[in-house]
Design goal:
Layout lengths: L4 H20 L3 E7 L5 H8 L7 E3 L5 E2 L18 E4 L2 E8 L8 H15 L10 E7 L9 H9 L7 E6 L1 H15 L1
Parallel strand pairs: 1-5, 1-6, 6-7
Antiparallel strand pairs: 2-3, 2-4, 4-5
């Protein structure tokens, strides 16, 4: 199907604009948020088409040895400023919130500060482009936590879009199937 001349010109203009933006910001910066075991790492690995762990870099750009990060049983030990990059797809830079499912206000404040700083950053390379908020749908006991409600009620994201990712759907399907099998 051939596009009329004006539509073709508009499509070409948009293509050139996208190329110019990619030159200014070769990496798409994502903040991923979600409670412990919400499937955040799995989402990132799937987006980057890998099963490998990311490389993590501190604020100065030095790689952090993953063995130095001591995750607790409840949640990982993260600095939201650290950059996670998968070698399989270096077009993305991910930031992982430490999590605030425990309801601690200082964790929410850290996220608010990060979003505020990154969303207003004049340097487009350091600008936050999107927030991916992971909510597992297999947790019937607490589908939305108070901490998550606080985030949506209190954290002004400015012009940074928030995309809700409902995770663990595969687990829900397995649970439903198990329930149906038991009914027979």
């Amino acid at each position: 199907m051939l596009l009329p001349n004006t539509e073709f010109q508009e499509a070409e203009r948009q293509r050139r604009r996208a190329q110019n933006v990619r030159k200014l910001t070769p990496r798409f910066r994502v903040l991923i948020i979600g409670r412990a075991n919400a499937g955040k790492t799995t989402i990132l690995q799937r987006v980057c088409n890998t099963t490998d762990r990311p490389k993590i870099f501190n604020r100065e750009g030095h790689e952090i040895d993953l063995s130095e990060l001591n995750p607790t049983a409840q949640r990982g030990q993260h600095d939201i400023e650290n950059e996670m990059i998968f070698e399989s797809n270096t077009a993305f830079v991910f930031h992982d919130s430490r999590g605030f499912e425990a309801g601690r206000t200082f964790e929410l404040d850290k996220i608010k500060d990060f979003v505020q700083k990154r969303s207003t950053n004049k340097n487009i390379r350091d600008h936050l482009h999107v927030i991916w908020y992971c909510i597992p749908i297999n947790d019937e006991a607490r589908p939305i936590t108070r901490a998550e409600l606080n985030f949506f009620n209190e954290c002004g994201t400015g012009r940074v879009p928030v995309i809700i990712l409902f995770t663990k759907a595969d687990m829900l399907d397995a649970q439903t199937m198990e329930h149906l099998v038991l009914l027979e």
